Amino acid sequence: MPEPAAVQGKRIAIEARGIVKQFGQGPSALRALDNVSVSIRENEFFTLLGPSGCGKTTLLRMIAGFEYPTEGAILLHGEDIAGLPPFKRPINTVFQSYALFPHLSVWENVAFGLQMLGRPSAEIGPRVAEMLKLVHMEELAQRRTDQISGGQAQRVALARALAPAPKVLLLDEPLSALDYKLRKEMQIELKRMQSETGITFVFVTHDQEEALTMSDRIAVMSKGKVLQIGSPWDIYDKPAERFVADFIGETNFLTAEMVGIGGGTARVRLRSGIEIPATIAEGYTPGREATIVVRPEHARAVKTGGQLAGKVENVVYFGTDTHIYIVLDEGGPFMVRQQNSRSQSCGFEVGDRVGIDIAADAAQVLRD
Amino acid sequence: MASAADVARQEEGRKIRSRWLLSAPALVIVFIAAIGPLLVMLAYSFMTKGDYGDVKPAFSLDGWFSVLFQRDMFDDTLSLADAHLSIVWRSVRLSVITTFATLVLGFPTAYFIATRPRNTREVWVFLVTIPFWTNLLIRTFAMQQVIRNEGILNSLLIWLGIIREPLQIMYTDWAILFGMVYVYLPLMVLPLYASLEKLDFRLIEAGYDLYAGRLAVLRRIILPLVKPGIVAGSILVFIPSLGAYVIPRVLGGGKNLMLGNLIELQFGSGRNWPLGAALSITLMVLVMVAMLFYVRNAARSGGGHG
Fold first, then answer.
1. Fewer CB within 10 Å: N-end or C-end of chain A?
2. Is B220 part of the contact surface with chain A (CB cutoff 8 Å)?
3. pTM of the predicted model, to two decimals?
4. Which InterPro entries does the record cross-reference, listed alphabetically (chain B) (predicted)?
5. Is B2 contained in some domain?
6. Which helix (H) or strand (E) holds A231?
C-alpha cells in the first residue's frame, strides 16, 4: 500500500499486533477489538476513524495503558509495553473531557507531569512557560481551571499532555466538545503543533471530515475491526469496502458484471450494457458480480450520451456546488455533484431526462 | 407620586424583612436550648459551690481556679492539678488518635463504596448505618463482650495459640480507643463517601497518564479533591470523641477518665458545680479552638478548591 511522503521510511513508533479485547466470558462476551493490527510511524498524524462503539477508543486506551489486551501485543519502538502501567509509558493523552485537575491552576496542571517525573524546578518553569506559549495561554497561567472556557481548557489539556515531551500523544476526540468555528481553528493548531513538536499523534474521531483534513494516515474501524488503513486520499478515492466508502463522504454504489481483470484494473459492464474501466480494491476475490463505487464529483450530468441514463428526482443548491439526485433507468439512485458557476444554473430540473458521464478513472471495485 | 415599580419594590422589601419571622421558632429553640443553658453554665462557673452540690449565689473564681490548680489539704500550698491535666491530655490524645484511626479505616471503606456500581452503593451505605439503629450504651457493652478477658477476642487469640494469658484490654486507654473508633467510624465514612462519590475518576486516569504512581495519585489528586469530606468527617468524629462519656465510663472503668466523666463527677459525687461548669466551658473552648485551627489550616492547604 503506498504511504504518504511524510511518513515514508520513518521508524515505527507504536505497533498494535493482533489485538483482541474481549469483555465478559462465554456466549455473551463482547469483542471490542477483533484481531486489530496497526503500525504507527514516528511523527505521523495517525487517525482512528469510526462510528461510536467501533473500538477506536478501546484501542487508544490500550496504547495509553488503561486497558489490557486479551490477546496480542502493543509495541513501543519494538518493545512490548503491554505489561507497563500508564504512569510508566512515555505516552500522554488528551482526554475527551480534558480531565483538568480542578484543584490546580492552569500552570500547575501543565507542570504536573514534569513534577511527577521528578524534573528540577529550574527546568519545569521554562518548560511550562514554553508549553503555555505554544497553546497561547501564557496570560491565563494563574487561572483556576473552572475560570476558563472550553476552548481554553482544550488548549491547557494539550499543553499538559505535551509538556513531558511524550514519544506519542493520544487524542481522544479532543475537538468534539467545541463549536464548529473553534473546531476548525483547533484542527489547524493541532496540525501546527504536531509538526512543531515532531511528536507522533494518534487521534481518535468519528468525524470523517476532521480525519481527512488532519491525518497523514487513517485507519477506518467498524465493529472492532480495522477495515482499511491508508492516506486520506486512499481512503476517499480507493475505498476497499462498502462501509468505508459509505462512512467517508457521499458515494454511489452500482452493481456491475465483471468482464476482465488484468494489471490492477478491471473492465466492468454496467447494467446499461456499457463497459467501463475500474480500479480494484486490495483483497478483491474475483467473481461474476461486482459492486463498484463512483464519487458524486467524478461524474457529470449530461443532456445526451453518458454511460448511464435516468431521470432527475431532485436538485439541491449548496452554494459551491449543486447536487443532482437521479433515479437510474435500471433502478437505484445516483447522485452527481456539480461545481456551480455564477453565470448559469446546472441546467437540469426535476423530471428531466439525464445522462451520466462517469470520468475515465472514477470507478473502483469493492472487495465485498 | 410613587410609580408602580417603586410600590412593588417597597412591597418586596417589606416581604423580605418580614421573612425572618419564619425562622423565629428555630431562633427561639436555639436560644432556649443552647445559648440559655450555656449562659447558666457560665454564671455557675463564677459562683461558690454549695455544700451538697448546687451553687451559692456568691461570686468566686474557685471553680476556674480548680481547673488548673489544686490547694493542698493541710498547708494550703498551690500545685498544678495533675489529675485534671492528665485527663485533658488523655481526652485530646485519644480523640486525635480516634480521628486519625477512623480516617485510615474509613477512607478505604468509603473508596470501596464509591467505586461500586451505582445501584449497589446504596446497599453498602445502608450497611454502614446499621450500627446507628442500636443504642450507644448497648453497642458499648457489646464492645465490652468482645474485648474483656474472657471475651471473643481473647478466646480467639488463645485458641489460635497466639497468646497464653488473656490480654488486659478492658479498663485501659486501648479499650476506650477501640470503643470510640468502632462507634464513630460511620461518622467518618459517610462524609468521606459523599466526597468520593462526586470525585471524577477520569482525573485519576489523567494522573496515571501524567506519570503519577498510585501513592502520588492519592496524595496529589484524590486527597486534595476529597478534602471537604475529610474535614467534615474529622470534625464529626473529633467533637464527640473529646466529650465522650459513655464509652470511657463503660470500657475505661473508673480509673481512665475523660473530660466528660470528669465533668459528670463534679456535678455528681464531687459536688463541685462551679468546677464542673468551668470544665464544661473549657471543653467547649478546646473544641472551638481545635476546629478553628483545623478548618483554617484545611482551607489554606486546600488551595482554591475549599
1. N
2. yes
3. 0.81
4. MetI-like, MetI-like_sf
5. no
6. none
